[in-house]
Structure formats: structure tokens, C-alpha cells
Amino acid sequence: MLGKSKKEKQEEIDIFNNIPGLENLLLPDELQEKKDYLVLGYNKFSRIFAMIIYPEQTWVSWLDDLFNIGNISISVKVVPSSNGNVINQLTKRLVQSQSEYATYSRQGNILHLPELEKQITDLEELRMLIQTNQDKLFFASIFITLNAESLQELNEKTKILESELNKKTAMIRTLTFRQLEGLKTMLPIGDIPIPNYERNMVAGGIGTLIPISNPNLSHDRGIFIGRNMFTNAPVYVDTFIGPPSLPNPHVFICGTSGGGKSVALKTLAARNIATTGCGAFFIDVEGEYSNLTKMLGGEVIKIVQGESTGINPFEIEPEEKEGKQFLNIKDKVSEIRSLIATICRNSQSRKLNGTETSEIEIIVDQLYADKGITSDVNSLYERKGGKLGNGKYAIGRIAKKMPTLSDFHRKLVERGKCVELSNILATYLKGNSLGIFDCESKIRSDAEIVCFDMSEIKDEFTKLYASFVILTWVWQKFVLKNKNKKKIIICDEGWLFLKYQESADFLVNVARRGRKYNVPLFIGSQFIDEFLNSEERKNYYKHMLNKIFI
């Protein structure tokens, strides 16, 4: 006989019934109900409690402290009442309280009168609010689940939970032999299988049951920085995420020597570079970031006295305003004047006089004019292509050579109006111990990761001079030039930069304006007092710390 019998025929499967139900998504692989706890799979223990006594007065976020215990769930079940039924019950109770008050008054028994007076006042007020629809009565139940990886940990957490609630004059009860019912109550299916734990509450009281805070503070994306010490949840930080998640991108790390500040800064920098592809500039006073920079494919600029660094403070970069690029020579004049003022103030303990201030502006303007450099960006270039010398040719525009400190000094001597200033600046010319910035810029224009290693510099003034030029150069060369490019500035041992107003003002400037240019400032420091106790720059430091995410 051809064909198959009915028994041999494969049974049809209903494709619409062959779908996992809700219970398949909620049930664990293993579920064992013990006397006062549940076993939910391998090394998963849970204990469920019901709140039986509430604080006499609740306040907003009074349950929030419980989340610090870690791995805890709180389920609040709220059921609205019928206004008509509530008003009838309040009226009966009010009449009963008034009768008791009258009876005790006639008997001269004043022991219970204050309590009854308060009760009558509360009942009258509540009934009036409900009758006028200004308030509503609800029935609330609170169930709490503690989770742990061992029974011992679960018992320890139970003691902590009971202690925390006792501080609030609240009390819980373990659902002994009813843990499975408690688990069903905790599930978000709107079922309340365990009655008799309801508490009457008005709308204001219900509002205080809503948790306000969450110990799992983390961005949705970013770099992994560790785990929450209470919940063990991973924590991610995205310094570029912007408002409203992070109004300002800066990071301030403070701790004792050997506490891990440098390690934290290196970790933040390396993970940001690897994750976001951002640029990074390390101001390294101890020589701790050179190896990291090389590993990341960056360039290390070692600052050594008497040797050229390849950084020219007279180099000028295009700025952009309202979609148009231009050269801001006036700002460069201010920058050079600030540099020379810093030299005079911190090495000679004197300020620039009026003649010197005027001469600086005149000479700087002349230097750029002699090179044919104006506010037009095209004035930075000689011509299109051509011979460079030594048999080399350039395709495209050839950049003009920028003025140097030697050019400035020569003009200053020629004019002969500031002899003392020219003598002071002679030490800062090429070939002398402080001539480290009297040179043409040699750092690649496409460099995105640069470490300025100042570990060879021992005296404080040279550190100030070097940091002032480096920080200003980084701001002009990389921050303003690449406004949309993400980059970070890492400044370890930040307290060293606060000894002098000039370097401190730069940090303030980055803290104020960094967000507009996609520049988080990462600062590490041993002494937070350096940021707060200087009366001379008190307002600056406070402004900076207000802008820094700690």
C-alpha cells in the first residue's frame, strides 16, 4: 500500500503556539524554595521581605539609602481606593474619636486627650481634602528582595538592611515559607498574591516611595573606568557626551602620593584615544608619559635646557569666526607681550613699563608685516609650488618662515629704546641655556598625540617658562585650529602650575572654553588646597573647580 499511515504521518506543529511565553523569559534555570530564601541557579541566592512598619513621617527618597547595600530590588505596589468608601470610614472613625474625647472630658481623665485631639484634627483635615478632590487615599505595599552569591553574604546583607530600616523607625518581615509567593509579587505582572501588608497613604506619601537616586551612575557609552563598589555594575564615562548628561567634560583627580593618580590619568587617556580616536597632549613634568605616548604612536618632545624644542611661540595659526578663517595678529601681540611680561615678572621681579609695552606691540606688528603676513590666511604662503633647494621641489603652496625670538631681539636692539629688556632677553636666544624656543617649529602639523617631557628641567622658573610656551602653543596650534576634532589635554601634578599666575590662568581658560572646542582638561594633583587657598587667584580657581567634574 502506497503512502503513510496516520501514525507514521508527522504531526503538524502550530507555529503560533510554538512561541516562548512570558514565564519562559522570567523563570531562572533553577528555582528552589527554602524556608526563608530562594536558590535561583548557580550561586544565586535571594531573600524576600515585606514592610510591616513604616516611619511615622516619610520624606522624599527615604528608600534611596537601601540601594547602597547593592544587588537589591524594591517593589512598591499601589492600589487607589474608592473615595466614597474612604469618606464613610473616615466619618465613622471621626465620630468615634469625638465620642471618646467627650467621654474622657466628662470623666476628667486628661491622659488621652492630647492624643485624641491630634487624631480628630488629622481625620478632619484628611476627610476635607478627599471630599474636595485635593488628595486621594491609596493602599501601598512594599516588598524588598536581597540578592547575593552565597548564603553567608545574604545573611550579612539582611543584617545591614534591618539596621538601615531601624534607623528610619521602619521594620520588615521575612516571608518565611512564602518566598515563592514573594517572588511572584516582585515580578512586574501587576499581581499581588500576598495581602495584609497594605498601608494607607495619601498622594504625598506615595510620592515619597519613588526612588530618586541610583548608585549605578554610568553613561550609555564611553570608556570603562571600573565597577560600582556597591552594586558591582560596570561604570562607563564619556567625556565628550555633552549636555545634559555631562555639562562640562573636565576631570580632576586628587590623591596622595602613590595613590594612583598618574595610573588613572594614563588609563583615561589611553582608553579615550583607543575608543574615540581623539588627540592627546601630555604636559609631563616627571617623565611618566613618554612610554605610553610611544605605544600609542605619538611623538615625544623632550624639553632640555640649551637645546631647540621645535616650538616657535611666534607661529600663528588661522582662526575661524562665522565660517570665515583669518589671522588674529592682535591676539598674537598680546600673547608675546604676556610671555615677555612673565619672563620679567618671575625672573627680574618687575613689570613691563609703558615704553616696553608699546615697543613690543610695534615690533611684533613689524615682524609680521616684513614677512607680508596680514589677517588674510593666504598671506601665510609664498607661492604655489616651486623649488625648495637641495634639489627638492614642493607641490602646492609653500609656507613662509615665521619670525623668531632672535628676530624680535634684533629689532628691539635696533630701535634702542629698551636696553634693559634686550639684555634680559639675550639669555633666551638660540645657543643659550634658555634658548629652547628660539627656533622654527618642527613638530608635524598632523601630530595628534604629543608628550612634552619636562623631566630634565630642574629649576622652577624654567618649568614655568616652558609650560607657558607649550600650553599657549597647544591652544593656538591644535585647539583653535581643529575645533571639531576631539582632543584632550592631560596635566599631571597640576599643583606645580598653580604657583604662577600665568600657567594657572591657562588652566582656567581651558576650563572655561574647553567644551566649545571639544577639549576636556584632565588634571591630577596631590594638593587640592593649592586650588582653593590662594587669595590672589581665588576667584579663578573656584571658577575652574566649578567647571570640573570630580
Note the topology:
Layout: H1 22-26, E1 32-33, E2 38-39, E3 45-53, E4 72-80, H2 83-107, H3 113-131, E5 137-148, H4 151-167, E6 171-174, H5 179-186, E7 199-202, H6 203-207, E8 223-227, E9 234-237, E10 250-254, H7 261-276, E11 279-284, H8 290-295, E12 299-302, E13 319-321, E14 324-326, H9 329-347, H10 354-370, E15 381-389, E16 392-399, H11 405-415, H12 419-425, E17 449-453, H13 460-479, E18 487-491, H14 501-513, E19 521-525, H15 529-532, H16 538-547, E20 548-549
Parallel strand pairs: 10-19, 10-20, 11-17, 11-18, 12-17, 18-19
Antiparallel strand pairs: 1-2, 2-3, 3-5, 3-6, 4-5, 5-7, 8-9, 13-14, 15-16
Helix pairs in contact: 2-3, 9-10, 9-13, 10-11, 14-16
Please explain how this structure is put together.
With 550 residues, the chain is an alpha/beta fold. It has four domains: 138 residues, no CATH class; 54 residues; 205 residues, 3-Layer(aba) Sandwich (Rossmann fold), CATH 3.40.50.300; 124 residues, no CATH class. 37% of the residues lie in helices and 19% in strands. The strands form five sheets. Strands 1, 2, 3, 4, 5, 6 and 7 form a seven-stranded antiparallel sheet that branches. The protein has a seven-stranded parallel sheet with strand order 12-17-11-18-19-10-20, with helices on both faces. A two-stranded antiparallel ribbon has the order 8-9. Strand 8 and strand 9 form a beta hairpin. The longest helix is centred in the first third of the chain and has 25 residues. The C terminus is likely disordered.
